[in-house]
């Protein structure tokens, strides 16, 4: 607001994950401004990257190791130095000047998105598990994640894919303070156990019981 940009900025309430691609499809560019201030960010492949891909939007993404390789490999847009305003503005202008516009660009990006749809990734996940020599008894899989496992998280989709294929899956996740989520529940064949979050909770044997 101090810069006088109030009329150009719109902070929208959250929308269901399944609606994000449709919701943003009227935009011209998707910007992924992630800072490498956490080591894991260098290897992050955030959901917003694939949502932009599904929406057919050219991507201006921070130059982080995994994300920049993905963007450049599939020619999805331009990567910029996340610590340089000039790099950001030059990348933005380059995308706006691009000769590839409209339907042709969206069609190409949607074709790429099909290779990374959850259906395609689920098939790859199952092929990895099936390639392991784990015997014929019911195979138990434990997943440990440092979040409350919102139904839209990718780990939930992974767990449900394995459960549908006959694996016994249990997900250990956090229970945020003040949350009304149950400590234990079973959803679509997947068991969830939520543990009250604290730094020490991440390393207690209970996570691996």
Automatic annotation (TrEMBL):
Gene3D superfamilies in alphabetical order: Glycogen Phosphorylase B
Q: Which UniProt keywords apply?
A: Glycosyltransferase, Transferase
Enzyme class comes to transferase
Entry's Pfam families?
Answer: Glycos_transf_1 (PF00534)
Q: What Gene Ontology terms describe what this protein does at the molecular function level?
A: D-inositol-3-phosphate glycosyltransferase activity
Q: Which InterPro entries match?
A: Glyco_trans_1
Q: Which residues cross the membrane?
A: none
Q: Which residues form the Glycosyl transferase family domain?
A: 2-101
For this protein, the record's CDD domains field holds: GT4_PimA-like
Q: Spell out the protein name for this chain.
A: D-inositol-3-phosphate glycosyltransferase
Q: Which gene encodes it?
A: mshA_1
């Amino acid at each position: 607001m101090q810069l006088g940009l109030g009329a150009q900025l719109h902070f929208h309430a959250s929308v269901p994950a399944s609606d994000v691609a449709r919701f943003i499809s009227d935009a011209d560019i998707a910007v992924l401004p992630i800072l490498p201030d956490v080591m894991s960010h260098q290897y992050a492949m955030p959901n917003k990257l694939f949502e932009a891909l599904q929406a057919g939007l050219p991507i201006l993404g921070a130059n982080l190791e995994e994300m920049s390789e993905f963007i450049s490999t599939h020619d999805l847009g331009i990567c910029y130095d996340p610590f340089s305003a000039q790099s950001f503005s030059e990348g933005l202008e380059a995308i706006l000047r691009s000769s590839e516009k409209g339907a042709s660009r969206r069609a190409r990006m949607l074709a790429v998105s099909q290779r990374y749809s959850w259906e395609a990734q689920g098939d790859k996940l199952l092929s990895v598990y099936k390639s392991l020599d784990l015997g014929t008894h019911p195979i138990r899989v434990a997943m440990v994640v440092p979040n409350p496992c919102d139904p839209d998280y990718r780990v939930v989709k992974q767990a449900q894919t394995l459960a549908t294929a006959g694996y016994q899956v249990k997900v250990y996740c956090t229970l945020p303070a003040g949350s009304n989520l149950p400590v234990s529940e079973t959803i679509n064949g997947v068991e969830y156990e939520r543990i009250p979050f604290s730094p020490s909770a991440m390393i207690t044997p209970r996570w691996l019981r």
